[in-house]
Specification:
The protein is mainly alpha-helical. The protein is built from eight helices and two strands; from the N terminus they run αααββααααα. Helix content is about 65%, strand content about 5%.
């Protein structure tokens, strides 16, 4: 019997994942999900809510910065870039969903991209590393939803 907590066990499993765990099917599906999310996010950059969060976020600056989609000349610290790009994705509400109701890629991809851009040039991720991070984020979200009694009750409330 392990004395490790559920959270510790969960973290150990996640930490142990590597790109060799990605099957060809997972890689192809992930690429499709990423392209879909980028397309929806780029469309979402034209929404009023995205314009508002972009303007608000201009007050933040940092030596470490990440791209704001649709704005080649505007960068923000990774936290705020992920927020603005996530708002762009969710503002259209066409991003992918699963049951119970959630939009997995729109929450994960903006954070993964913003963080990957913030790493020093000599520590850049490969495309396979990005796919692994994306899939770990999706897996974590799915597991947390599975553990949540609130998430299981969503269909009954609507």
């Amino acid at each position: 019997l392990s004395s490790q907590t559920i959270t510790g066990n969960f973290a150990s499993v996640i930490h142990g994942l590597n790109a060799n765990h990605l099957t060809d099917q997972v890689i192809q599906r992930s690429k499709r999900m990423i392209l879909d999310t980028l397309g929806v996010g780029l469309l979402g950059t034209s929404t009023e809510v995205c314009h508002k969060v972009t303007e608000y976020s201009k007050i933040y600056s940092s030596d470490i910065s990440s791209t704001i989609w649709g704005h080649l000349d505007f960068r923000l610290p990774p936290l705020y870039a992920a927020f603005v790009n996530g708002v762009a994705v969710h503002s259209m509400d066409f991003d992918d969903t699963w049951h119970p109701a959630t939009h997995p890629s729109g929450a994960v991809l903006p954070a993964v991209i913003a963080l990957s851009e913030a790493f020093p040039q000599k520590k850049k991720f490969s495309g396979l590393d990005l796919l692994l991070a994306f899939n770990v984020g999706i897996e974590v979200q799915g597991r947390l939803l599975h553990f949540s009694s609130e998430a299981r009750n969503i269909p009954k409330r609507y």
